[in-house]
Structure formats: C-alpha cells, structure tokens
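Quick one, tokens below:
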C-alpha cells in the first residue's frame, strides 16, 4: 500500500516506531520520543528533553498517550507500568 506521508516526519507527525522503556533514575533514553504511551495506570516521573529537573505526572490512566519529549523516565516514584516511547 502506498504511503503518501512516508517522507513526512516531524515532532507533530504520528509516531512511526516504538520502544519499551524501563525506568531508571540516571540513564538517558537511547532515543528522545515524541510521546510516551502509558500501558498501566499510575504516576510517571521524568526529566524532559530540555530540562534538568524532574516533573511528576500524577494519576495517569492506562492507555494515556503523554505528548512529552522525555530524556529520562525515573524509576523512583514512577508507578505507571508498560511505558512505551513513540517516535
């Protein structure tokens, strides 16, 4: 099937790939995602791409797509599970 959008890729375009994220307090993600998919409800603590301080997203429902570009997803205080980076 032809994809007339195959040459379009910006932060605002739909994700074309995904990877599982294992939260860690200091390790940066291998890729900066366009968004995070939250598979299991909870809180998510992250450091965003252009920031140095962490932020806590509380009460995320399962199935949430969080439109943030995170460089670190912290394990401490993150209770959300099945986190997937979309890029």
């Amino acid at each position: 099937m032809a994809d007339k959008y195959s040459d379009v890729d910006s932060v605002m375009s739909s994700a074309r790939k995904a990877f599982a994220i294992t939260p860690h307090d200091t390790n940066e993600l291998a890729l900066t995602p366009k968004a995070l998919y939250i598979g299991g409800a909870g809180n998510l603590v992250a450091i965003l791409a252009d920031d140095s301080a962490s932020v806590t997203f509380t009460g995320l429902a399962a199935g949430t797509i969080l439109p943030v570009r995170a460089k670190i997803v912290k394990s401490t205080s993150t209770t959300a599970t099945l986190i997937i980076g979309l890029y």
